[in-house]
Amino acid sequence: MVISLSANAQTKSDSTPSEKIYINKKGEIHDHGWNKLGFITKDNIVKDNEGKTIYFIDGNGNVIDSNGKKLGK
Q: What is the pTM of this model?
């Protein structure tokens, strides 16, 4: 199973709309060329490919960055 998400807000402004990110059933996040960008843990923590926490999703569905700043829902 592969989940496809649009990444327009996460890419440079000169990117084409056909570029997408993909999240597989293991929680691995890949770009449109299947290069691994990071992963999502079972605790809803998003980490980059080196294991550094980028953001997490709290129990209310809020996205919180690694500094504790609320980014949205």
A: 0.64
Separation between Cα atoms, residue 62 and residue 34, nearest integer Å = 28
Contacts of 38 (CB under 8 A, 6+ apart): 28, 29, 46, 47, 48, 49, 54
Encode pLDDT of 6-47 as tens digits. 444 444 555 555 688 899 999 999 998 889 999 999 988 999
3-class secondary-structure state, position 12: coil
Query: What is the distance between the alpha carbons of residues 15 and 32, in angstroms, rounded to a whole number?
Result: 12
- Is residue 23 within 8 Å of residue 5, measured between CB atoms? yes
CA–CA dist 43, 32 (Å, integer):
25
d(CA 65, CA 43): 14
Structural tokens at position 53: 């926490």
CB atoms within 10 A of CB 59: 6
